Amino acid sequence: MSSEPVRAADPRVAELIDAERTRRSAAVSLIASESLSTPAVRAALASEFGDKYAEGYPGKRYHGGCEVADELEELAASRARELFGMPYANVQPVSGVSANQAVYAAFAQPGDAVLALALRHGGHQTHGSRANFSGRWFTPASYEVHMSTERIDYDQVREMALFHRPRILVAGGSSYSRHIDLAAMRSIADEAGCILWVDAAHIAGLSIAGIGPSPGEYADVVTVATHKIMRGPRGGVVLGRSEHAEALNRAVYPFLQGGPFLAAVAAKAVAFAESATPEYRAYARQVVDNASALAAALTDGGLRVVSAGTDNHLAVVDVSRLGLTGRAAADALGAAGIVVDKAVLPFDPEPVALGSAIRVGTPTVTALGQTESDMAELATQILDVLAGAGT
After folding, report:
1. pLDDT per residue over 309-358, tens digit each?
2. In the chain, what are the domain boundaries?
3. 119 is in an annotated binding site
4. Are 57 and 77 in contact (CB under 8 A)?
């Protein structure tokens, strides 16, 4: 999109837009939660829908002039339902975190127990972190990965679910590189009598491409972030079973939000359409192939990858044997033009602010057309930078 109208109105903001464009083009981004939105998505974000206020739901708006807005939201929701194979979808959440908040609002009361993957073992802050609303307003319990395999311990999940009797069992995370056994999670949730929530923020784009289990087959409720692998706008979606539609709708509006960002809803609709194409499925498959190739090349170069590999778009790489913290490694790579996240290992002795690992992801480099051979070269660059930083 041209920044010339911005330049005429606000030269300083235009300079910053140019600076971000330059930074992005000069760097190699391995941020697992980022990708590149498509031109059609960006055009929808800049459309006239950005000016329209449409508080409420189709046919039940507070404001007038919402006839076209109603058509748009119904289109986006129908595409989401078809894409994820669930009978209910709400496309209004402004982010993945907002979608997660709606799950708590719909199914839990303050103080209720929620069981989720521990943050240090690959979970997410909205799954019970004490620094987050989920850990302050609810009673969090955490399951972990096996110390030896670094994969989820489903026996432990069952034991904890039967002990804590949580209101919600969460399947999902932000730094877990393996497929989650959703059939096992469904069985545990049924035995414990709780809601099964699949937080698919990171893997939604893979599941719709047929990579890994389909959340809609097992979950009571699913949350999705429409950026990341889906290459859509920043935003969220809540999907669920028909019997939960009213509770989830009330949770999103009026409990959590006012009017939806209709330009983002338009961009979500575009992203859903693009995600249903063979081209997108090929992209998603290449994302996983690239992540696997990058993890293998880093392993061949002497680094240890958590769980010995990846099934999805990311890998967590142990840098402690080089005498580095995750933060120091991320800083060194950033200075060399390779952008990664610092991360913690399961059972990491380092504090979260430092960590002993980095998290790498391949959605962005794949969107730029890179393949497995490029990952081998990129791994060599990473290894060279880290070797220098660790001496």
Report:
1. 999 999 999 999 999 999 999 999 999 999 999 999 999 999 999 999 99
2. 43-276, 278-390
3. yes
4. no
